[in-house]
Amino acid sequence: MGKTIRKKSGSRASRRVTPAYLFFYALFSEHAWGILFGILLSCLATSFLAARFAFTPGETILIGIMIVPMGWIAFSRPARIVAVRLRRIVTKQGG
After folding, report:
1. pLDDT for 12-25, tens place per residue?
2. CB–CB of 43/63 below 8 Å?
């Protein structure tokens, strides 16, 4: 069904790549949250800029694409905080 991932440490333990595994991997990833925050910032900033200036649709798309990495970098600390707190909440043992 799914591919098997071998750990680099040389151990025999392996994990099957399933949709649930990919979901939780993305949920706990700092980069996934940074990209999400970057996309949200891009949507807000692009709509604000497009309302104030007369951009063509192509220019609007280009500006939106350019703002995503800026938002990713600007929100790297909050993204790390969200990912760490989610890991603590979800993987909490015996609580």
Report:
1. 567 788 998 889 88
2. no
